[in-house]
Amino acid sequence: NLTLLINETVNLGRVLDKQKGIFKNRERGIFQFTMKDGYSEPAIEDVPDTPVRGKEQLIVDFGDTFLLNHVLKTSGMYDIIGALGYRNTDTLLTMVSYYVLCSHANSHVQDWWEGNYARILYPKAVLDSRRISEFLSVIGNEQVIRIFFQCCLKHLFAVSGESEGILIDSTGLPNSIHFPLTAISNHNGELHNEVRLIYVTQQDSGMPIYFRYCPGNVIDTSTLTRTIEELKQYGVNTKFAILDAGYYTDENIRLLYDHKISFVTRLKGNRRICRDLVKAHVPTMETKENLVRYNSRYAYISCVACELTEGHRAYAYIGVDIERKNSESRKTFRKAYDQKLSNDEVYQTMQSQGVFILVSSRRIAKDKILPAYYTRSQIEQVFDIGKNYAQMLPVRVHKEEAFRGHLLLTFMATVICKLIQDKTQHTHITLESMIVNLRNHTCKVYPDAVIVQEAFKKVNDCYKLFKITCPVQIHR
């Protein structure tokens, strides 16, 4: 121990780096002290790789981190994370694992690490609660994020091929913390204090390939141009885009045509072209030739040529969802009885019920247009994964730099969760049940080895999905 003599002796705690004056004690955590400057916060790169550890637990959770480590290595994510250049890879891998496997605040990460196999895999992780915010700020550096996307996209396209189609959508991240990105959003008539997060996914695989963010009061229509331009900087030459109705504006349509990007999107009912198409075609649509089946549902669909903007020809797919129309009609009939509506009022109301209009810059067979458009559900599933399993919410940071680092971690965790979830398709195993059951598979820690306890059936089922043989012993 080093001491400072003023009027009394002060114990600075455990020496971590004598030359740089870095110490750790219970009161201050990790800090820096010099006779010249007194107490200060050390730069994160100056903190030694091996901080003070508590007494090692002898039985720890094993299966969740063991399987996740296998996924990181076999999917290529382990190499991508290593390419980011963060000096303490153990810290980064621990935080990625924590974002996938836990839903607690970052202040609990060290408690989780101490009772988990992550402590054996990543022994040099620095997880002091005072350092987490600074860690997020470091990996939230724009240069780090660019390196990540360059490596991630290169690997993804090498494995699955460069998809011509992308899906673009956004979601709100409710946030009451005051920094420049927080703003009041009016999205579909609902007001929220939030940040807007934009994701891009690959159409074929549904895998997330990019993210952007903007203040909550920026409307979706103004983000499309910049999203496409940023994708170009990473070599993603979009040829086909499926967009939500919120991105439809004349300016965006001209942008897509100018960049020779084919597209499918939905028209909102308040646009004049939509009202004209409904009036002209819906009354005569219900014919055998227009009947189309989509999964277990049926719809009448008619395809007609149209002009979206001056000189830009497209195809409009006017559809009537039969099940939805019947449901809405029953509500109308009850309303007509209660409010004593006339037959003319009932008839006019029924003309727009169950109606939808999709537009496409290329002609698509009528029985293919709905499957093409509803691949949009893939990106909604990605947002569900991010919010429910990858700590996308709640936002627990107070600086924009740390917020970027948080988003990068949630993106990595979402990609990993999507990889795991894809493996569980057509099985009785869910991502949530997998994590819970694997966490219950423990190991005993000895000085030179880890002895893995017997795996029960639910755990073995998870291992079999990934073709993993559960070891008996792992040398340290």
Report on the structure:
The chain is of the alpha+beta class and 476 residues long. The chain contains 17 helices and 20 strands. It has helices spanning 63-75, 77-82, 89-101, 109-114, 118-121, 129-139, 142-160, 224-233, 250-258, 272-281, 322-339, 343-350, 366-373, 377-389, 400-424, 431-439, 457-465; strands at residues 3-5, 9-11, 14-17, 22-25, 29-34, 38-40, 59-61, 165-174, 183-187, 190-202, 208-215, 240-243, 262-266, 291-294, 297-309, 312-321, 355-360, 442-445, 449-452, 473-475. Strands 8, 9, 10, 11, 12, 13, 14, 15, 16 and 17 form a ten-stranded mixed β-sheet that branches. Strands 3-4-5-6 form a four-stranded antiparallel β-sheet, covered by helices on one side. α3 (89-101) packs across α15 (400-424) and α14 crosses α15 (400-424). The longest helix has 25 residues, at 400-424. The radius of gyration is 28 Å and the shape is elongated.
Supply database-style keywords:
single chain; 476 residues; disordered N terminus; 4-stranded antiparallel beta sheet; 10-stranded mixed beta sheet; 40% helix; 24% strand; 20 strands
